[in-house]
Amino acid sequence: MLDDRLREVEYSDVYSGVDFIDVPKTNQFYPYINKLEWNGIMRGYYLRDDSPIRAFGINQPLTRGQFAGIIVKAYHIPLIKLQSYKENGAVKSDIFDGQKFTYPWGQEIATLETLGILSGYNDGNYKPNTPINRSQFANMLYKVESGNLHFFNQSAIVNEFVKLGIQSDIATEKIKSLKNNDVLNYIASYGDTRYLDTITLAADMRKEGEILFSDINVKIVASKDNRCRKNC
Question: Which residues lie across from 199 on neighbouring strands?
Fold first, then answer.
């Protein structure tokens, strides 16, 4: 659940909670908004560039792009690199102009699209500035909540295969073959912005356990500390 991922607000003599001009502390939604702000998921905005006064925009609609940003932050999803998005077959749209991601939500939407959490419209666009409707909100939240999304260092796993004399392309093929596996269900591979030259494996981790590739006599052990260890 999302609430389990959030840190509790730490109050002190110098911090009594966030101050938004449109969300007084007596507002029924203040505790939830305060917790989201404390965790860096929703920050609000300054009324003017030269003003210290912030508003949350409590009655403003939430856009598809904004919700994509919330999902990425709340679930600690690594953002896809531009080059990786291109290599994965990116086409020009309203989140990618053919050379770069569009600001401000292009990269977040591209990442969620890669993971199958968000999809575009029939015209190939994603409409990041369009208010998200309730069904889209529910659909995205269900997809990210219903699985057990984990991210592993695919490059490190492949290197362990190589040490055993298995070619890297065969190792990569084996990893990508994990569809409907009872331990890991493969979702995507991509370069993410945390690392320079590392490929990240995104998978639905159904349980901790062993995965045996009998044809090459290799076994990997998947654990919830986001590690895949090899055995042979």
Answer: 191
